[in-house]
Amino acid sequence: MQETNGNQSGQQPARMPSRHHHGAPRQKPEIKNMRQTLQRIWQYMYAKKLLFFLTLFMVVASSTLSLLGPYLLGVTVDHMIADFQTSELTFMLILLGVIFITQSVAVWLQNYWMITIAQETVQTMRNELFYHIQLLPLPFFQRRQSGEVMSRLTNDMENVSRTLNSSVIQLATSVLTLAGTVSIMLWLSPLLTLLTLTIVPLMFWGMKWITNRTGRYFKAQQKDLGDVNGYVEETLSGHHIIKAFSQEERVTAAFHEKNERLRDSGYWAQTYSGFIPKLMNSLNNLSFTIIVGFGAILAVNGLISIGIIVTFTTYARQFTRPLNDLANQYNVVLSAVAGAERVFEIMDEEPEKDDPQAIRVERLHGEVEFQSVDFAYQEGGRTLSNIDFRVDSGQTVALVGPTGAGKTTLVSLLAQFYQPERGRILLDGQDASKIRRSSLRSNMGIVLQDSYLFETTVRENIRYGKLAATDEEVVQAAKAANADDFIQKLPNGYDTILHADGSGISHGQRQLLSIARVMVADPALLILDEATSSIDTITEMKINDAFRQLMKGKTSFVIAHRLNTVKSADMIVVIQSGKITEKGTHQELLKQNGYYASLVQSSSLRANG
Amino acid sequence: MKEIFTYVAKYKAAAVFALFLMAIELVVELIQPVIMAAIIDTGVTQHDIGSIGFWGAVLLGISVLAFASGILNSFFASKVSQGTAYDLRKDVYERIQHFSVTQIQRFAASSLITRLTADVTQIQSLIFMAMRIMLRAPLFIIGGVIMAFTVNVRLALILAAFVPFLLLIMFFLMTKGVKLFGSVQGKIDRLNAIIQENLLGIRLVKAFLRSTFEATRFRKVNHSLMEVNKRALQLMETVMPLVMLGMNTGIIAILWFGSVQMEAGDAQPGEVVAILNYATRILGSFGVFSFLLMNFSRGKASAARITEVLLEQPEERLDKGDQREQKLSGQITFDEVSFRYPKAKQPALMHVSFSVEAGEVVGVIGETGSGKSTLVQLIPGLFPVTLGSIYFDERPIESIGVQQLRRQIGIVPQQAHLFSGTIRENLLWGNEEASNKEIIQAAEDASIHDYIISLPHGYDTVIGQRGINLSGGQKQRLSLARALVREPKILILDDSTSALDANTEAKVLQALRRRSCTVFIIASKISSVKSAEQILLLKHGELEASGPHHELIKQNAYYRTIYQSQSETEVFEHAGNKW
């Protein structure tokens, strides 16, 4: 008989781990709560429930017709052999024709509709997941690698999509066909049915024998595959080191060893799994032989007709196929459920939530007060303790201190990216946690150290600060940020598309653009993280000037790396190991003769030495 | 695809055998209906039980034969496919190892990784399939038609008329579908790009309150992906119902003409049954066929991507140099060296000349993009110079074997890249024969020894993906220790002390001075290289000036400007926490 399972010729379980988890091959999917997950998927499909039921109806129709077809075919043959009544034959043929046409139409409709349902469901899920991710608090993104989050939006969703496309129909069809086939066979000839069913225990026994072996070898193969992929990834991304240390021979040898192991485990895994279709095929052949042989003997004795034999051979084929399909689909469904669970896991993450009593604020004045604020990223640890200071509207605060002292954390608390563990942050005398995040952040402008730009035009990148900004405003902001000059010189001016990898414009220019972006938003409060990387002197001057422009009349927090900035600040806050150790103006702190004074001294020493 | 076949050819014997076994299976399946016809026509109609028993036994016998062939085929087929995959991986990997840095950059490491993994696996399963069923479906269709002719020519003609017609429909729809799937892939790439961009810039999205804006942007692309995907899938799903309809029409036609012929006495009932049997089996083969076509087109794409790597000639300069061991002193001369990256418009370095004595410390200063990294990458010959030449102890670089040269150079790149394994294994990268003492000495010089011994497993602590995580500064120091383990005569620090605080930096520099090697330090701050014997000041790829600090500060205005701006804007400390 034809290969019963065309769509899985034995290599199926040897799935490549997806691009995003090299080195960690997907083992047997882990499922926590199958029923609940299926229910949740169903909720998404519910929007298309009418179409879904129509699809199921079509599945019932097409399955019934696929059972009816062979039966009528057998009857027709019997008619032909018994007596040649053309009129009756014509009728039978027309009937067959109608059945075949209806069947094709039903199959087509069921698939067509199911794809619509599946794709729209997946679209909705993906949109929701993406939006949900936007609302998640910052710690979420620090906990997880972006590649991993991305993999859920892509690979896992793709997995769900593929399964919905085909498995629902396949499962329903298989169950229906199986039940229908067995009952028709029983009705046609209980004796032949019984004989056909003798292959079922054989099938189970054979499958068990094979899967016992494949399971073992697939595990080994997955491990070896993971090793090979991991090694490839590691050595190719570190290729410059290998070259510089001229270790090509060594890594090649190590790779060969892993490659060989993979070949050996892969050989057995593939060989054994290759037995499955052959087994199914042979059992099909066997049942064919049984039916024809015994059927013929029964026919000779007049117990059944030849037509029944013809019909039976067709049904017998339809009988092993759904069994096999069911086994295959089960695995596919399991992996999709596991994928869906990974998606829902993210959707169940708590989004950033405002206090229920939080209020909207319009324009803030910019008075900021930290009142004995404590904060820790992890339980038990302590990143900031007892932070206490006050800034008047329009003042500039320079945050100074060694790496890891907690400067960035401090301004992150101000932006409500995190919540203080203890103490309060007051904005215009109002507890920041009682202000809606959206209205708070719309009063705030942030320039990060690495100026992240989006892969779109210069204009759109600036407009990101204020979506409603007119072209005029964008140009104004660019001019104020000293960015207009170089933008004009770009190949397409404001319409030049920037690239994510940073090619096209320099580091300093990127920074000017990110200043322009904040400029267009015109916030009341500013958080600036000065870049440490070396930028050429002229651009540097432009940036400093742009910063000054930006800070005019706004309360500004600057994580400062440059003496100039620090000197001109209204207040300097020195942070060491999460505590404020000194605060005051440049002159005051110099007098205190503490950490700050020594910093200034060492840098001017270096400068003059 | 052609190149892939030459790989399969290595396993010719196994492949031929696998195909032969497949052919046996096929023949068995093709004669089954004939035997069935014989049972009906000779046995049943003539009530001959003996004949039924005989043909029944034959049927059973050939079924067992088919089973045995199928099982054996599995062994040979996986030998061919696994063997080919192994050879492909081996050759591609070796080829990549011989690529120059430029070539790897051109292909992009990430793309090479997918070619070596996903693409090879794709080819492997395609070959396995080919050895087992790929040829089966088309052969079965052809064989089925031929067998039908031997049973009854006129009825077979009807069958033969339908097959090419259906094949045409199928091919037409499939090619359209494959093209559509291509654009689906494009949309997926676009979607991934948006997600990636969004996740990387998530702080910005939050700071600017742009979640709705981002979601709308995503929704648009997601929607167009859905539309194309739907179209592609739905088109593919039309193939089967159409083919089914066509074939079933054929069956009805066979029945009709069969009855006419039987009436005229030109056909036996068994013959009609047999031909019907072929028709239904051919129908089944179409399903497999369309599945195979899809796989084939995917495999073809993978094959093309692999072949591209295999056909790429390694650009690494032919090693004409002297392979004998030769000690370098550390003396280097650049003579009018110019360098242009392949495909770049502007040269990265122009007419750079300088000379360094053995054991000197050389600082390299310049703005981003002035050619600092390029300059030091030319020293171990990672790129060949475009014009001019580089001399080591008066010998041109080309005359020294690549292995010989690189063995005596230690590089500490900007981005410390460590390999998974223990700390010791990583340090031994520099020199496999290094003694324990040498390793510890190197670690001490790199100011990392104390940290290492504070770890629970000391030098045997596992780092990397499966081990502990190190901070940026710790990685840099380990990477420095790794370079020191080689006892290099020339050491290159590519802005690699940036994550160290001033104290540690000074300590490390002192330790380096005790080792008799030439040290190149690329730095963004003049203060890091002030004590160097010589400072190379680069500007737009040209050597603006060179000399010790005290000379440059007097003689060069540009140097002075940088120095002044840096001392004014002196960096208090380095790279803050990432947001």
From TrEMBL, chain A:
> Could you cite one Gene Ontology molecular function of this protein?
ABC-type oligopeptide transporter activity
Q: Which superkingdom does the taxonomy of this entry point to?
A: Bacteria
Entry keyword Signal: no
The places in or outside the cell where this protein is found are:
Cell membrane
Q: Where are the transmembrane segments?
A: 50-69, 89-109, 168-188, 194-211, 288-312
Q: Which UniProt keywords apply?
A: ATP-binding, Cell membrane, Membrane, Nucleotide-binding, Transmembrane, Transmembrane helix, Transport
A cellular-component GO term for this protein: plasma membrane
Q: Where is this region: Disordered?
A: 1-30
Q: Which PANTHER family does its entry note?
A: ATP-BINDING CASSETTE SUB-FAMILY B MEMBER 10, MITOCHONDRIAL (PTHR43394:SF1), ATP-DEPENDENT PERMEASE MDL1, MITOCHONDRIAL (PTHR43394)
**Protein name (database record):** ATP-binding cassette, subfamily B
Classification of source organism? Bacteria, Bacillati, Bacillota, Bacilli, Bacillales
UniProtKB/TrEMBL annotation, chain B:
Give the main location: membrane
- Membrane-crossing residues? 12-40, 52-72, 155-173, 239-258, 278-296
Which residues belong to the signal peptide in this entry? none
According to Swiss-Prot or TrEMBL, what is its membrane topology? Answer: Multi-pass membrane protein
Q: Which domain of life is it from?
A: Bacteria
Indicate whether Transmembrane helix appears among the record's keywords. yes
Chain coiled-coil ranges? none
> Gene Ontology terms, cellular component aspect?
plasma membrane
A single MF term (Gene Ontology): ABC-type oligopeptide transporter activity
The answer on whether this UniProt entry bears the keyword Translocase reads: no
One matching Pfam family is ABC_membrane
Q: ABC transporter domain location, by residue?
A: 332-565
Q: Where in the cell is it found?
A: Cell membrane
Q: Which InterPro entries match?
A: AAA+_ATPase, ABC1_TM_dom, ABC1_TM_sf, ABC_transporter-like_ATP-bd, ABC_transporter-like_CS, P-loop_NTPase, Type_1_exporter
Q: Which residues form the ABC transmembrane type-1 domain?
A: 16-298
Q: Which Gene3D superfamilies match?
A: ABC transporter type 1, transmembrane domain, P-loop containing nucleotide triphosphate hydrolases
Q: Which UniProt keywords apply?
A: ATP-binding, Cell membrane, Membrane, Nucleotide-binding, Transmembrane, Transmembrane helix, Transport
PANTHER family, per database record: ATP-BINDING CASSETTE SUB-FAMILY B MEMBER 10, MITOCHONDRIAL, ATP-DEPENDENT PERMEASE MDL1, MITOCHONDRIAL
What protein name is recorded for this chain? ATP-binding cassette, subfamily B
